[in-house]
């Protein structure tokens, strides 16, 4: 019996300005998250450009559910459970590939499914009585999914909050990333990084809109890059290397990070960089701007490019950087184990330099070899270890808290406010307590 | 005079002994230290790599490792390369390429990470002897979700 079986005991882990350490370290809470939060929320699966042709599939793990994102013979992208209706065998094991003959065939007993999840055939069907056929021979079904401008999300719970209602105006961050393509289209390109984090998934998600850590945690990496470049006495007018341009804003001062602003939406979503961000001062690429002006007209193109949001959190699974076309996806494995995937996108119709900028950023910041990532993960691990101690039960989220938040955390604030985290925990309680489609 | 193969052994030893300034001097000014992310990955920055570092970035990395606030290294990591004998793939008076399969261990207090891979050293000969123009490292398990790799392969 899970000690949090009573929903009230879950709610007690979260208070408006603090949260109990068990949300990060207790395996019983993690089990509940898998069975409730990760089933009730809309979780990112993949991008439809990963499955460009009918029969193409991409497999992923959503919470504890193995799923397949597949493009059907009707060109529709669907999300199916990746488990045979017979004995639960995974139907596909490769990360991606093509379904032979436009069908899914179980590798164990040869049950065959169409790409909409319906059962096509089983061998020696006569071995099943009519009653058994009705009861046991069925498809794998199709999960509730939504494709938003190429980004495919799934809600495992059959009933629950709608896609638009869940994400609301936070979708403007995806809009901006897609609009940055002169053709209004993105394509996954440049490889996917997978970084194993031995920490709870929420430490990563919270960090994305934590504007109080960069100047501290990244002093040794970004600060060193800035110092080496500044002391190399570059000739007047010589261009900053791209890596220096990308590293140095991480050690901007508190004033910069405060003034960039944070916008908090319902359901745990938020973005930093309302007014400007660490991406605002990247050198412009002339050919890219020309193509954007040609596609949108100068005024509209300038408005798209002026929007340089820092991180947008699509709670709980997806975090994006529209300004440089990278996304990071949290895939929790255990209470203290999470894979962070980093994907990069080509702006269709833009010059190749744009993809190089994107891939360079992902390598410098998101790779398992990243000097920046090492110090972030070090801090998450240090929290994981610290919170295992019962010497103090509560984690503070007091920064800029006011009782006016009782009605909701939504709003625009200075970015050093901890409002995004408080918003995430309101959503956490909500998604943990929704009973619809949930499994205890 | 140092042979090309000797340079490969010396390079690994300098990393293992954390003699990074001497290690840095083994590379030409336009050198590239590259660990691709995928198989058959074309060279260039239009694809994400695990390492794709010129001398400026290598300098940042070395300086960061001894920075007092490199928090992930307050408990220092140590590494050990075990090299198979380097085989010359291409040779000439001024340039040569060597292939060296290796096992690499990186330890930090109670944790130890073991990686396998193959290094390709593209060397260039100048007045002072052989220097490294490019070191390309093909990691065996590059598809895996990898933990932090904090030192240099």
The percentage of residues in β strands of chain B lies in 35-45%
- Whole-number total of structural domains of chain A: 2
Share in helix of chain A: 25-40%
Largest sheet of chain A: 9 strands, antiparallel
Q: Compute the number of strand runs of chain A.
A: 22
Number of domains of chain B: 1
Please name the fourth-level CATH homologous superfamily of the largest domain in chain A.
Naphthalene 1,2-dioxygenase Alpha Subunit, Chain A, domain 1
Instruction: Count every helix of chain B, treating DSSP H or I runs of 4 or more residues as helices.
Output: 3
Please name the two chains that share the biggest interface, counting residues whose Cβ lies under 8 Å from a Cβ on the partner chain.
A-B, 43 and 35 residues
Regarding CATH, which class of the largest domain in chain A?
Answer: Alpha Beta
> Oligomeric state of the chains?
heterodimer
Query: How does the major sheet of chain B shape up?
Result: 7 strands, mixed
Termini separation of chain B comes to 25 Å
How does this model look, in words?
The complex is a heterodimer of chains A (about 450) and B (about 150). Chain A is of the alpha+beta class. Chain A folds into two domains: about 45-150, Rieske [2Fe-2S] iron-sulphur domain (Rieske Iron-sulfur Protein); about 170-435, Alpha-Beta Complex (Naphthalene 1,2-dioxygenase Alpha Subunit, Chain A, domain 1), CATH 3.90.380. Helix content of chain A is about 35%, strand content about 20%. Chain A is built from 16 helices and 22 strands. In chain A, the strands form five sheets. In chain A, strands 13, 14, 15, 16, 17, 18, 19, 20 and 22 form a nine-stranded antiparallel β-sheet that branches. A four-stranded antiparallel β-sheet of chain A has the order 6-5-4-7, with no helix packed on it. In chain A, strand 9 and strand 10 (about 120) form a beta hairpin. Mean pLDDT of chain A is about 95; it is low at about 435-440. With about 150 residues, chain B is α+β, with helices and mostly antiparallel strands. Chain B has one domain (about 5-140): Nuclear Transport Factor 2, Chain: A (Roll). In chain B, strands 1, 2, 3, 4, 5, 6 and 7 form a seven-stranded mixed β-sheet that branches. In chain B, a hairpin with a 2-residue loop joins strand 5 and strand 6. The mean pLDDT of chain B is about 95. The interface of A and B includes residues 195, 196, 220, 363 and 378 of A.
